């Protein structure tokens, strides 16, 4: 099911006793990281309540074609365009017939007509209805005309007491088959944490110590990791850029908060990329009230070292594959190799910040990817492009390591 992460699944439910299994199917899709929107026919609501599906999918359930309220939220054409895959489970004989006839007499058939997404059906009906030549012709027509995939049906005892083909496949089987419709990407099924942006270390209620990090590189890496099939958690200091779609973002201010957010759920994290510009030091104490200007010409600040987030992650039990950044002004590779060993990292993305027009707070970067036994230079390019190249290479190293460690 690992290919379902970040995929948009439109789950259609038609009237049939198997509709109760769609609740579990929705849960499985969500657990695999998919975004699920449920569409129910009126008959489906006789078997299972929309509220159950709403709670499990985390999204409003779509019920009617011409409902002004629903159309004001996500209209049916928008919903049709939104889907990466449409799965109708259970698909009744009546629904299959209406779909084969090209009808658009309810929301679900209309969506199937309006969408370019692949359509999969999980038939569920009495064995005689399934065997009926008219149903079989409808199925053949749907396969031949629009490439509809048919999942099942299974053979076995039916709710009506008959035995034969017509049982809806089990939710686990359906989720696996849905996952198989997508290609495996470099980070399919992986959970990736990325720190980004600066930290702010408070001096008093109105002042702080920080730096000029824009967060652009970390945010571009988050979008690239998402596109590579990963479930992404972006742990971000204050920046002024938008969080990429389908990326979970935890907003933090201080290094301590960034560390806490990085350690949360770390056991489930496969890859940790530290792109944040963490303040090395913070004030020993934060003044309760605004610090007043005094008569003295010189003011001394007492600072204490911040925790090293990436080194803490790399030293943790069951550590994820850990990647750090190194901004250097000379001997870039030598310093990166030293940092790699000192912080116990798997890879370091090193860049020469003395070079004009790249790195900190600019749109472009040029880096060298340094591993224990490898050095690879990636020439100057836009951060988005570089992020994609980096994610591909990091994924390759991660997958190679996973292979050797079994
Ligand atoms: O030691 P230096 O700051 O050069 O290391 C840079 C790398 O370490 C970056 O990946 C940065 O995100 C990470 N780092 C960290 N916590 C700190 C300092 C740096 O995670 N306190």
Give the topology.
Layout: E1 8-13, H1 21-31, E2 35-40, H2 50-57, H3 68-73, H4 76-82, E3 85-91, H5 93-100, H6 107-114, E4 119-123, H7 127-131, H8 133-146, E5 149-150, E6 154-157, E7 163-167, H9 171-180, E8 191-196, E9 201-204, E10 207-209, H10 216-227, E11 231-236, E12 248-251, H11 255-263, E13 271-274, E14 281-283, E15 303-305, H12 309-314, E16 321-328, H13 332-342, E17 347-352, E18 364-371, E19 374-382, H14 383-404
Parallel strand pairs: 1-2, 1-3, 3-4, 4-5, 8-11, 8-13, 11-12, 13-16, 16-17
Antiparallel strand pairs: 6-7, 9-10, 14-15, 17-18, 18-19
The structure holds cytidine-5'-monophosphate (C5P).
Your description of this structure?
The chain has helices at 21-31, 50-57, 68-73, 76-82, 93-100, 107-114, 127-131, 133-146, 171-180, 216-227, 255-263, 309-314, 332-342, 383-404; strands spanning 8-13, 35-40, 85-91, 119-123, 149-150, 154-157, 163-167, 191-196, 201-204, 207-209, 231-236, 248-251, 271-274, 281-283, 303-305, 321-328, 347-352, 364-371, 374-382. With 406 residues, the protein is an alpha/beta fold. It folds into 2 domains: 2-179, Flavin prenyltransferase-like (Rossmann fold, 3-Layer(aba) Sandwich), CATH 3.40.50.1950; 191-405, CoaB-like (Rossmann fold, 3-Layer(aba) Sandwich). A hairpin with a 5-residue loop joins strand 6 and strand 7 (163-167). It is elongated, with a radius of gyration of 27 Å. Cytidine-5'-monophosphate binds next to helix 12 and strand 16. In the N-terminal section; belongs to the HFCD (homo-oligomeric flavin containing Cys decarboxylase) superfamily. Residues 1-191 are annotated as: Phosphopantothenoylcysteine decarboxylase. Residues 187-396 form the DNA/pantothenate metabolism flavoprotein C-terminal domain.
């Amino acid at each position: 099911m690992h290919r379902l992460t970040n995929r948009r699944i439109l789950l259609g439910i038609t009237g049939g006793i198997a509709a109760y299994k769609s609740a579990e199917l929705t849960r499985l899709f969500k657990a695999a990281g998919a975004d699920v929107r449920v569409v129910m026919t009126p008959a489906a609501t006789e078997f299972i309540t929309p509220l159950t599906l709403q709670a499990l999918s985390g999204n409003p359930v779509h019920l009617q074609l011409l409902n002004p309220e629903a159309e004001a939220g996500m209209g049916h054409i928008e919903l049709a365009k939104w889907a990466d895959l449409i799965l109708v489970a259970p698909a009744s004989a009546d629904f299959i017939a209406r779909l084969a006839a090209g009808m658009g007499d309810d929301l679900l058939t209309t969506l199937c007509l309006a969408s370019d997404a692949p359509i999969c059906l999980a038939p569920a009906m009495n064995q005689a209805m399934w065997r009926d030549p008219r149903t079989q012709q409808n199925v053949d027509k749907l396969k031949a005309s629009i490439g509809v995939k048919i999942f099942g049906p299974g053979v076995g005892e039916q709710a009506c007491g008959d035995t034969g083909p017509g049982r809806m496949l089990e939710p686990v089987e359906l989720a696996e088959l849905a996952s198989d419709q997508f290609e495996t990407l470099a980070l399919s099924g992986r959970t990736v944490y990325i720190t980004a942006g600066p930290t702010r270390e408070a001096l008093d209620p109105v002042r702080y110590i920080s730096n000029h990090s824009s967060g652009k590189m970390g945010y571009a890496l988050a979008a690239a990791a998402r596109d590579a099939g990963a479930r992404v958690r972006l742990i971000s200091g204050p920046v002024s850029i938008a969080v990429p779609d389908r990326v979970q973002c935890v907003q933090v201010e201080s290094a301590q908060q960034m560390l806490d957010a990085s350690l949360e759920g770390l056991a489930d994290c496969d890859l940790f990329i530290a792109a944040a510009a963490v303040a090395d030091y913070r004030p020993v104490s934060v003044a309760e009230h605004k610090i007043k200007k005094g008569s003295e010409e010189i003011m001394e600040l007492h600072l204490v070292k911040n925790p090293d987030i990436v080194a803490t992650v790399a030293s943790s039990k069951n550590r994820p594959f850990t990647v750090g950044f190194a901004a250097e002004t000379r001997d870039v590779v030598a310093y990166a190799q030293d940092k790699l060993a000192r912080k116990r990292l798997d890879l370091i993305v090193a860049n020469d910040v003395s070079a004009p027009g790249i790195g900190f707070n600019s749109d472009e970067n040029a880096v060298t990817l340094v591993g224990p036994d490898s050095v690879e230079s990636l020439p100057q390019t836009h951060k988005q492009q570089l992020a994609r190249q980096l994610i591909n290479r990091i994924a390759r190293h991660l997958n190679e390591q996973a292979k050797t460690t079994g």
